[in-house]
Amino acid sequence: MSEDQTKREAADAESQLTGDKESPPQRSKARRLGCAIALLIWFTLLLTPCALFYLAAEGEIRFDHRDIPQPYAHPLLLVSLVSEAEDRGLRFETSRIVEARSSEEMLCVETTVRFLLWEYSGGNQDVSYCDCYQREGSEADWELAGTSSGAC
């Protein structure tokens, strides 16, 4: 073997060794996002029985607003069981602040109630209503100014 051939073989062997030591290819951001979404869906499926047990034991799952008058009457999200003689299922109630003309003096809250019934007596039972509140100054208590059916 010639000296040049030996040098070339040594260089080829060295390049193969350094090629093997390269870092593995980085995962794409889309692939990581997909894995995160799949993991979130998986944990949601795993925790669904816990939420259903809580709903069965307590009768409702409630998240309230903090900064509105009568927060118990206007939940951010309320999921409750319906167990009437003719109707059985779930009730979903949501509310949102629709109108704040002068945020210090007037406030309207739209509340929507929807039903998912597996036994029902018939008819559309979904409803939406609007409660408007007013107060004299920023330190005064809110007073109900009026209620109307439908959207605000």
Explain the overall architecture.
By secondary structure, the protein is an alpha+beta fold. It has two domains: 27-58; 59-149, no CATH class. Helix content is 32%, strand content 36%. It contains two helices and six strands. The protein has helices at residues 3-20, 29-58, and strands at 60-64, 75-83, 88-99, 106-119, 127-134, 143-149. A six-stranded antiparallel beta sheet has the order 1-2-3-4-5-6. A hairpin with a 7-residue loop joins strand 4 and strand 5 (127-134). It is elongated and about 100 Å long. The model has no long low-confidence stretch (mean pLDDT 83).
Estimated share of beta-strand residues = 35-45%
Mean pLDDT: 83
**Main sheet characteristics:** 6 strands, antiparallel
SSE topology string: HHEEEEEE
User: How far apart, in Å, are the first and last alpha carbons?
Assistant: 93 Å
Shape: elongated
The domain tally reads 2
| Helix coverage percent | 25-40%
Q: Total number of helical segments?
A: 2
